[in-house]
Prior knowledge:
alpha/beta; D-Maltodextrin-Binding Protein, domain 2; 5-stranded mixed sheet; elongated; 14 helices; 2 domains
Amino acid sequence: MKRTISRRDAVKLAAAGVAAAAIGKPSIVRAQSYPSKPINVVVPFATGGYNDRLARAFAPHFQRITGQPWVVVNRGGSGALLGHTYFLQQPDDGYTICCTSAAPYIPLNIYLQNATFKLEDFHMINLPSRDYTLMATTADSPLKSIQDVLAKLKADPASLSIGIQPNSADYVNLMLFADANKIPRDKLRLVTYDGGGPTRNATAGGVVNIGLVGGEGFLPIASKIRPLLTFDDRRQKPFDAAPAVTEVVGKNAEYVAGSQRGWAVHATLLKKHPDVYKALLAALEKTSKDKETVESLEKQQLATDWFGPEESNASFRRTAEIMKKHVSLLKA
């Protein structure tokens, strides 16, 4: 018996076929329209800090290029532990990403604060901001170079007052530098400060003979200091008069990189929704390299470099390994 299919039935069958195809290839269907709704960006710090500024400055350019806004969600507290935990509790569907100082804060959360998460729970898409410890002195200091500093510290480790933040990458770097030059750690004359700002002010004002703190924070007062040493494998502008620690100690010099800031996602996103991950990666890369984005962020002294996932994850894990090796210094 011949059966006639009504137009209504035909529409239902067609709809069912589309639904079946969508069920069969969920990540591909999602990726084709990604992003189809706003992106939430978790910043595990209070408003006004570098990561918050980066996320908010990046937002209009991401929307211009993708057609979708993103919503900055600040979850500060406990040295980023609360924010990192909150981020990992969100769905790993590509609609929640994290803008954070991945290093040193994720390793610190794990090694010092007994975080319930692991390094492997995070995947770095791009860490454009690479801060570094800068050893500096006041602009009119009699210390003209790192060789002057070493000469004094080797003759008498207590001859120079050293401004430093305890439990910081800067503190670890100072101790590793002392070890490399056979200068007794316990003989150094340390003046501790609660925060990078006070340490920089003491350095620029000549309250201490030398100070070690994140280099990017010195930019607004660059004319008031003399850079002496950069804890990196390359010189950093505008402080490139100061040699890299690898030039002074050797290419195998151990040091902890400064804050590595940028974009991270759930590591599980790569396997659960690989096509969504690829679409998000492409959107972030396109926005980061966009001329208007670069010009806008540079005016705000925000990093725009595109290193990509491979280099960003390698740098993050390398720093975490060094921090784990010297965790006793962080606890000191």
